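Morning. Coffee machine broken again, so started the prediction first thing and wrote up yesterday's gels while waiting. Chain of 350 residues, entered below exactly as on the submission form.
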Amino acid sequence: MAIESRRGLGGWWWWGWASAAALLVMMTPCVGVANDTQFPEPESLAPAVRFWASTFTQYGCRDVIVHDRIEPGLVYDVVRDVGPGDDARVQASIQAAVDRLERAKRAEPATLALFVSPVATPDTLARIRTHRGMREAFAQGLTAERLFRGVVRRALAAEKLPADLAALPLVESSYHPGLVSTAHAVGLWQLTAGVADRYVRVDGKVDERRDPGRASVAAAAYLRDLYDQFGSWPLAITAYNHGPTGVQRARETIHSDDLGELVRRYEGPGFGFASRNFYAEFLAARHVLRHASDYFPEIRPGRLVTYKVKRGDTLERVAKRHGVTIPSLRAMNGIRAALLRPGQMLLVRL
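Came back before lunch.
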């Protein structure tokens, strides 16, 4: 893959450092992510935006991307055809990246320091991160987005919010209304109970976060509140993930409203990889949603329905009822366990 030496493809420092350190790094391709006044793309985040666009469209679930934790746009290797378990080739690739970085430090420490983020850099091994490709999951998310497009866009319009915010559920849940995260965020918009309770009913009997319509109304109201507080979408969208208190603390610490500067310099508690990359992920998802037919020409219009699991339902029974296969039901919903939970929301493509 050819590497271009120009801004937006890794920065003006790329050739100097690469030749001095002899580090073989593959840069993600330019995808032409749109820039505008509502959702500006800070120049320092451009490589990360392209990294996420490639992760969503170019690499599948059997591809393991070995990349830099501080500068996600630096991709050291892509290990293909990796199964669900650990793979010796992935470990070898990680070690090779560590060795290259160590050689770079010894060979040209001054050159290396030119582009290292002011954020405290972890030891070399901790700097290397792996991430599986998401093409299949993103394709499913784009398919599900068609089902919920109306309720999502109506909720956004009611708050006079940009329609492009409909890309957020692609990042949050791949548009799956039944998704529950390890942090107990729920639904299309992955709302936590503490946030959702301000806008919808969340108690022992009813959890309206699981209702795509009610959840979209709540998310739109929350996004409106965040935008009113911060006055910019980069900060408001980051606050959607990191929390408004954390983003306000970052602003006050860095004395800047430039998200690119906050990502580059802020070292506050909890402001880790997910928070630093959330806006870049959104920009990438927005771009892909706008150009879905170019990236996913294989997606064909089809009927998609939701099904709420009843007591006594099994995968076999639900699949038979809808005339679909169990593997397709598992794949559409990311189901690994054999048992279904009453009240669980499934997506079924007919």
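The radius of gyration is 21 Å. Going to sketch it on the whiteboard this afternoon.
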